[in-house]
Amino acid sequence: MSELSAVSGTPTATIKFYQREGLLPPSDKTAPNQADYGPAHVARLQLIRALLGVGKLSIAAAAEVIGSIDSAEPVLYTFEAAQNALSEHLDESDVTPDALAIVDAATTGWRVSPGNPGRLAAARVVDTFGALGQADEAGWFDRYAAAALLAAEADLDEIASRSGRDAQAETVVVGTVLGDALFSGLRRAAQEHVSSGRHPAPPHAASTRPNGAS
Amino acid sequence: MSELSAVSGTPTATIKFYQREGLLPPSDKTAPNQADYGPAHVARLQLIRALLGVGKLSIAAAAEVIGSIDSAEPVLYTFEAAQNALSEHLDESDVTPDALAIVDAATTGWRVSPGNPGRLAAARVVDTFGALGQADEAGWFDRYAAAALLAAEADLDEIASRSGRDAQAETVVVGTVLGDALFSGLRRAAQEHVSSGRHPAPPHAASTRPNGAS
DNA sequence: TACTATCCGATAGCTATACTCTCCATTGTG
DNA sequence: CACAATGGAGAGTATAGCTATCGGATAGTA
Known about the structure:
The structure is a homodimer.
Chain A: H1 2-8, H2 12-20, E1 28-31, E2 34-36, H3 39-52, H4 59-70, H5 75-86, H6 97-106, E3 111-112, H7 117-131, H8 140-160, H9 165-198, E4 209-210
Antiparallel strand pairs in A: 1-2
Chain B binds a DNA duplex through helix 2.
């Protein structure tokens, strides 16, 4: 076990905790008190740390998505499981019909089930936006929908490039979880870029420099 | 005070807590034990609930962004403040140069300061992605960067449509915080759409229906 | 066989966050 | 003037995510 701890940099106490919570599969034990860990365990632990750390999942949510990787279900179900684990559970009564209509209008032509967690989450954002007295003057929702479509196509292409159910299922989870974080980072960078292109004086954060490929 | 509580549906104990934490400005008191709250207080409280609830900010982060709305700084600084409050504080030593190079390549031509929190956050995602044994086969990073640019342009247009520093500053904060949640919801919806367009059998979540504008 | 070191597993404890409750002097109101 | 309500301050609570300790068992060594 402390082999695992040493390799991963995770304290043994934490590893034991993850095992208890069902995040990490039980060790293949060779004796009542002796266990063996292989590269699969190391990889799994790394996945856990990524989901909890960068992805900010809760222990329970991480356990759910990991379970859906391990189940033999087709990849499409893993997708659903990942989405459910990542979103808090809303139903239609948590959002106004108006907000749903706005979301549906922004996603016209999309084939999305009414209970899709993303649809409901987006509607709640629309509600919140309205409650704060903000209005969508410049087609913000529509343009976000276009951006989201771009990202989703990239996601699906990335998944399709993997071969084998297990590799695909893992990419589904990793892509879904890390995708949020990646986009959020890139959007902030893009905000600075767009903003500096429109306003003469850049924010005080030191030197801004045009970015050539390294 | 319980006027405020009634209107907002927030318990008075919680309101008092927010005041203590500096989220809510002190009441304009008319007597040592009697205070008056106006519509500004109601609006502020709603903003707080939105930041904490939908935006999932911590109390401390919310206090920071709210402070930057109230300061008289130009809107560009509010942008920076919002970004800093939303990102955990990374510096270049937290990510590999390789990951930074990949991020910079995906954002070629963008004018972004090296310390931009988004740039570093994106690099950390790239690192994590690699550590999990995933490779960017289908131009995932580049395509996310394109999507992020779209979103950032929408953000800036939306902000530009507001008049007055205070309205703009509030839209900066609201847009930056809610934008992450909105995109994440729309991306999940788009994933289902794209996925159902590519695979014959949809996931079991009941009826999927093509979506006509309401 | 004795000794030591390690390991597993279970339990209890710790820390941070986001509230929530209790107390109490003050005070508007009838 | 009685009296419920108010504002402010500090302590208390619930949950999440670890972390530390203890007890029993076993492998390695001599």
